[in-house]
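Hello forum,

I keep getting stuck at the same step: I have a sequence, I want structure tokens, and every attempt I make locally crashes halfway through. Rather than fight my setup again tonight, could one of you with a working pipeline run this one for me? It's a single chain of 218 residues.
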Amino acid sequence: MSTYAKEIQELVNAALEELNAEHQSGKLTDAPIANNHFLVRWVTKSIKTQRFGRLVSGDLIRWQKVGRSKGNAADLPTVFKRISAYYAQFFNDEGKGKTLKDSDIETFLDTMIALDWDVSTSEPLLNGGKVQIFTDGHSSLALCADQCDDCFDGELLIKPMHWFVRGDHALFVEKAAEAGFMVHKVTDYKSVVKYHVSTLFSLKQGQSACRNSTELQG
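Reply #2:
Ran it on my machine without issues. Output:
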């Protein structure tokens, strides 16, 4: 079964390999403008020939639009290299990531607490009323109490988890990556956790690294 992780790796790696082949053959100068122009044309051709599956079709269309509207500022070579390196850190060539355990999440929460973050796992945050969380100005991370049980089969994570983050998002993303979690923003969310103006992330495997509505994967 194909996954987004597998298909996006195949796409960006194919693009970078063909770009490098053009350099090696002497057909293309290895320069920012030339490289970006090559990838914009490569993306357009891939769309027309339907070279890649539907899971990454939205990314191709978005890159085509960005390439046309921003020109060299789109910097597709850097975007593709970053995606390739990012996914290689978490997924093998088949797009399979590591199995997440409750102990992995507990260790991560301990790390955030040690960094003076407020961490809450005691309140049911989804499918219920508003919940008040007071953080005394600290960055904070809140997990739904129900999901802390329902998303696991024994020690293994089997369902998506939703995390509410307020404060230093950059540090959260950095520490999550160090812990082996792939972090993507889902949406700014204000209606469930009262007085905790937060950003919603979720813990789930196989979603986009490039979309505006994205998720955290392991």
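Residues 4-25 form the longest helix (22 residues). If your local run keeps crashing, start a new thread with the error log.
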